[in-house]
Queue: 2 jobs
Job 1
Amino acid sequence: MHYRRFGQTELPLSVFSLGTMRCLDSPEILAQTVKTALEMGINHLETAPSYGKSEAYLGRVLPALPRESFYLTSKILPGQDLALTLSQSLDRLGLDYLDCLAIHGLNLPEHLDWVREAYPQLRRLRKEGRFRHLGFSSHGSLGLIETAVKTGFFSFINLHYYYLDQFLAPIIDLANRRDLGVFIISPADKGGQLHTPPEKLRRLCQPLDPLGMGYRFLLSDPRITTLSYGAAHPGELTPAGIWGDQTQSLNDEETEIFRRLETEMERRLGAEQCRQCQACLPCPEDINIPAILRLRNGAVAFDLTAFGQYRYQMLEQAGHWFPGRRGDRCADCGDCLPRCPCQLAIPDLLRDSHQRFQGPRRRRLWEI
Ligand code: SF4
Ligand code: SF4
């Protein structure tokens, strides 16, 4: 297992972090999973009050471990009572302090307003030793995330950034310039359900598998500190052991894989490829055009239709955790058309996406 400095926190984190949102079958299974993860060299665990019994189960394991043998992140939602929520988390966990406290879902401008108001209290709690480092996750706009980073309040950031979704690339760059630790959320699942890939993607990624491709894309980037790894039981930790020491730059063979993927994207989508520039927004019908067309890119180029359905069906179900409306809401007003530098027939592509992805609506999971 390799380790990287978590930005200005100076914590030496393993490049995989154990996310505990899926490890909820029993306290015994979670205990075994934590033990195996620590033996593999994973030294960072991640939980949240909203992950079911995760904190309570961890509270049956962590107090018996040497405190210096792990780093722990938990979270707080904007608007929650800071002192109370943090105390309840620490009580459940049986610990005196968190290494990292993340504001969970700084998604809207009012959430940032809340942080500004709460910041004196956050500083006080940090000074009292209740937690050591403050960070945040966000599903908000690029502009909101940039503004939050630039407040200087935070020393780390949790991001959805993957080979198949590089929308937040400018934030990776900004976080690096500001020396923030970068924690990537859910690369195997939200990064394209790479644990159950379609045959075509499997073929294009040879000799790696798609999961390895996704991990190597992230791990070869020294600006990224650690990737969440949501094992449900010890047996699921094996790939973290395989990839956890593969942090070197891409070799020629791997570079060729990414070239092949890009070539296939160009070949299959041609002039229909959405370049994710966001220039089409805002849409008066509040359609999340870039997110929908990103899913379409993946479905057309790499057969990622099941993944597209999984994500698309969460639209209009998850509030500010996955903002915007579905493609069938397009009213053909034409506002977006002159703004698209690729001159895409956006309404047609949205209708096509809706046909590909529509289905029963899904409720969001906490790890969205
Ligand atoms: S044409 Fe459709 S997608 Fe484009 S701005 Fe109008 S409603 Fe939105
Ligand atoms: S402006 Fe065009 S290329 Fe850019 S995100 Fe919107 S649809 Fe995609």
Job 2
Amino acid sequence: MSTDTNAETGDESTSNCGASNETNRTTAESSSSTCGASSTDDSSSNCGASSSASSDDSHEQEVGSTVEDFDADPGQLTAVGLGPGHAEGMTERAKTALLEADHIVGYTTYIELIPDEITEAADEIYDTPMCGEVSRTEESIDRTLAGNDVAIVGSGDPNVYALAGLALEILESKGATASMVEFDVVPGVPAAQSCAARLGAPLVNDTVSVSLSDHLVPMPEIESRLHSVASENFTITIYNPWSRKRRENFRKCCEILLTHRDPDTPVGIVHGAGREDEQVMITELGELEDLGESEIIDMTTTILVGTEDTYVWDDRMVTPRGYETKYDY
Ligand SMILES: C[S@@+](CC[C@H](N)C(=O)[O-])C[C@H]1O[C@@H](n2cnc3c(N)ncnc32)[C@H](O)[C@@H]1O
């Protein structure tokens, strides 16, 4: 997710619920889907905007088809976590699940992270631009109900700000029972862990994640969560920290953190962990807001804010686990 500029791009592409096409790839930008795409396309939603209108839009999503519309024996639907974004960061289980899938569905950027030998082996690839998550997930479900084995992919882990839950919710809204489709989740390394690995050992004690995306959760609720988390001595992982439309969220987040933590609290910033444009920086909380306008902080960045006990040793963040209180070393 490098920018939010393509959030509002076009229509769904033509889908045929499983027949291969010449290139095996269908990008949902060119025409209309016939395979269960939502009747209200979320690509028109204001994904990433800080107004509450975007969340209102998302409530208007309608399921286009129900289980009654499919005659086939359903296939298997697998939510696959790709990890940080390089082939070596994918688990063997993720690679196997993708190789076994007839169709692979995902956000265009994530599809491009998958090794070619895997995408070339699939009968069909279906990708959508950013913010097509509802129509994309429904497409994957309809393809499964039509009898195909489908993998829906995302970065990191499918249970961390990702589509595993949405898949089950949409299945339920289509009138399916949980057991009607064989649904499986293949975990991947979440960004918090990939980024922590680049910074040393910042997360080894109690830790909490907060997303600054107000696409689905209104900003006052995010602010309240930040206050509550920052008032305890947890490390804080901040996902979705910045976009052009979320500058104010980032500024507000820095302000809230500084009401609970000292300005010299260590902060680790990792942009594009495991990707070609990876950048890593260790700084202090008092410097964080100004870095919001630098290229290291965008929608592919994760920020780790230390506890009161976190320190920096030789360019490594260290959060003591408490061993030093029990052992001599
Ligand atoms: C919608 S969330 C998806 C999280 C993902 N499911 C996970 O487990 O990491 C997207 C956010 O994850 C973080 N992220 C994803 N990939 C990253 C990477 N390679 N390096 C740093 N942060 C990343 C960023 O904060 C980004 O805004």
